[in-house]
């Protein structure tokens, strides 16, 4: 316990969250990050967010919590080394300011890459360790898409990853990590961790946790937890587009001072995942056939999942392949969101009800379709602000910047200034579009869209659009990931 307070446990919290697509050329400036400092972090209280889970658990446990620095950005290319130093510097300065403490909680992603630091999350924990010392209990929360290597396991006291994708247990898992940390501080438990990595590199689309194979693996983990075999078990599916040595699936088992048991559990679950790998293979529908199928479907909304431009997975969000198909095939009642600040400006210049003539999308790189010339009527202009209704990130604000809705033939284009991963109905509701009443909705996602859209979806088609979210991993030029790894390599048997 902190000196001078007889019973109160004192924790310090902070975090840096970025999922990094190492094949992306889209830069990651500081302005891409939502940055929250000090007591402003309390805005996350009660939200379905990792920091919200830390805050809520501390309130429930009567623990004193000091806030430092938290930042988060949508996935893009590796973070420049000076920006990474700046972000970790702010976090560490905040921690130093609030020491002494009994423990630290770090809310990280687990697939962050910075220039010069391929395993950036492990580097963050190491830098924090250098300040707080080897004895300080440090709990880390990670995304289900974390690429977990030995470095972050060595530097942390305990790790808790999300069990869901779409990520709807952000608050719960962070609260779990906080409770385990407090029990550690109180001497009730002595966590030890084991990491086993089956040689698997599945794509995000294979990791929907409500269906096999991931539901099978996570249910087994929950059974072991419920039986008291482990304090907590994390099944991290990996982020295949971060080309690092830590890339690939990970099982982390945490037991109460029983390293052999932790190792056996992690091994068992890794072998279970390996045995189910054929269920992780994904084949999607070509764009022209997908749009034809959506138009022919008798009932909407039909969700066209633009997997190649999966924003949450680090793509630009300005892919136009499906827009081109929708216009060519004369779809009606269709909605598509595209990030394009220049097109938004053109809409603002035209004004509400004005006719805008411009090009849309395809401007970040040449992998997601060409810019599409459009002429349409501006239906709505907005400051873009909305608040997630959830389940994922419920209560958390979204700021895609100035936003316009323009009607181009049978397509309502929602143009954002900044990309934002779709998974919440407020993205459309906030600009006056009722998702339930649309015929076709394009979502630039793999699985996340299900969080908000599943209840209104009549039919979903996963489209084999080209781009950085492509499920064809062999098309990426991997250099760092440890080989052999499935499905890039044929592996006769494992372990
Ligand atoms: Zn994730």
CATH class of the largest domain, named Alpha Beta
The biggest sheet amounts to:
8 strands, mixed
CATH topology of the largest domain: Rossmann fold
Number of strands: 19
CATH architecture of the largest domain: 3-Layer(aba) Sandwich
Radius of gyration from CA coordinates: 23 Å
Q: Assign an overall shape.
A: globular
Helix content: 25-40%
CATH superfamily of the largest domain: Response regulator
Mean pLDDT score, rounded?
97
Report how far apart the termini are. 44 Å
* Alpha-beta classification: alpha/beta
Domains, number: 2
Strand numbers in spatial order across the main sheet = 12-13-16-17-11-18-10-19
Bound chemical compounds: zinc ion
Low-confidence stretches: 1-5
Helical stretch count?
A: 12
As a percent range, the share of strand residues is 15-25%
Structure notes:
The structure is a single chain. Residues 1-5 have low confidence and may be disordered. The chain has helices at residues 50-61, 81-98, 120-132, 150-155, 170-185, 214-226, 259-275, 287-296, 321-328, 341-350, 426-429, 450-453; strands spanning 10-17, 34-37, 64-72, 103-108, 138-142, 158-161, 191-196, 232-236, 250-256, 302-306, 334-339, 355-360, 372-382, 386-387, 397-398, 403-408, 411-416, 440-443, 459-463. The chain has 495 residues and is α/β, with parallel strands linked by helices. The chain starts with 9 loop residues before the first strand and ends in a 32-residue tail after the last strand. An eight-stranded mixed sheet has the order 12-13-16-17-11-18-10-19, with helices on one face. A six-stranded mixed sheet has the order 2-3-1-4-5-6, sandwiched between helices. α6 (214-226) runs antiparallel to α7 (259-275). The longest helix is centred in the first third of the chain and has 18 residues, at 81-98. The chain folds into two domains: 10-280, Response regulator (Rossmann fold, 3-Layer(aba) Sandwich), CATH 3.40.50; 287-470, no CATH class. It has twelve helices and 19 strands. Zinc ion is lined by residues 143-145, 167.
């Amino acid at each position: 316990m902190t000196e001078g307070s007889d019973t109160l446990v004192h924790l310090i919290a902070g975090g840096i969250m970025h999922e990094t697509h190492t094949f992306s050329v889209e830069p990651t400036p500081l302005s891409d990050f939502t940055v929250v400092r000090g007591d402003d972090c309390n805005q996350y209280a009660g939200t379905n967010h990792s920091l919200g889970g830390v805050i809520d658990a501390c309130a429930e446990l009567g623990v004193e919590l000091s806030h430092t620095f938290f930042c988060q950005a949508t996935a893009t290319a590796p973070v420049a080394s000076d920006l990474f130093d700046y972000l970790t510097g702010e976090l560490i300065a905040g921690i130093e300011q609030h020491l002494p403490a009994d423990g630290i909680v770090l809310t990280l992603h687990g697939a962050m890459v910075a220039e010069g630091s391929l395993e950036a999350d492990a580097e963050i924990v190491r830098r924090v360790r250098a300040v707080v010392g080897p004895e300080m209990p440090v709990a880390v929360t990670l995304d289900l898409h974390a690429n977990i290597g030995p470095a972050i396991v060595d530097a942390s006291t305990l790790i808790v990853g999300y069990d869901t994708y779409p990520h709807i247990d952000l608050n719960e898992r962070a609260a779990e990590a906080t409770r385990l940390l407090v029990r550690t501080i109180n001497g009730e438990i002595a966590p030890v961790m084991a990491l086993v990595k089956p040689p698997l590199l599945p794509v995000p689309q294979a990791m929907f946790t409500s269906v096999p194979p991931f539901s099978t693996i996570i249910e087994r983990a929950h059974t072991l937890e419920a039986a008291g075999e482990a304090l907590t078990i994390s099944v991290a599916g990996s982020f295949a587009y971060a080309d690092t040595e830590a890339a690939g699936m990970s099982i982390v088992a945490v037991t109460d001072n029983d390293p052999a048991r932790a190792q056996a559990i992690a091994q068992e679950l890794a072998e279970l995942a390996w045995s189910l790998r054929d269920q992780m293979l994904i084949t999607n529908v070509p764009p022209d056939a997908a749009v034809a199928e959506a138009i022919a479907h008798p009932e909407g909304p039909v969700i066209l999942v633009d997997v190649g431009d999966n924003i949450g997975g680090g793509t630009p969000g300005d892919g136009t392949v499906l827009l081109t198909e929708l216009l060519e095939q004369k779809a009606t009642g269709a909605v598509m969101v595209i990030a394009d600040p220049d097109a938004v400006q053109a809409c603002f210049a035209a004004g509400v009800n004005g006719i805008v003539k411009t090009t849309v999308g395809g401007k970040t790189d040449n992998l997601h379709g060409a810019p599409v010339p459009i002429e349409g009527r501006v239906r709505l202009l907005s400051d873009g602000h909305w608040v997630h209704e959830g389940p994922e990130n419920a209560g958390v604000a979204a700021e895609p910047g100035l936003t316009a809705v323009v009607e181009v033939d049978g397509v309502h284009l929602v143009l954002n200034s900044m990309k934002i991963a779709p998974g919440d109905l407020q993205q459309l509701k906030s600009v006056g579009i009722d998702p339930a009443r649309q015929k076709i909705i394009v979502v630039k996602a793999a699985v996340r869209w299900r969080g908000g859209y599943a209840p209104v979806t009549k039919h979903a088609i996963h489209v084999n659009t080209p781009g950085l979210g492509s499920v064809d991993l062999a098309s990426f030029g991997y250099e760092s990931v440890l080989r052999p790894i499935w499905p890039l390599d044929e592996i006769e048997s494992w372990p």
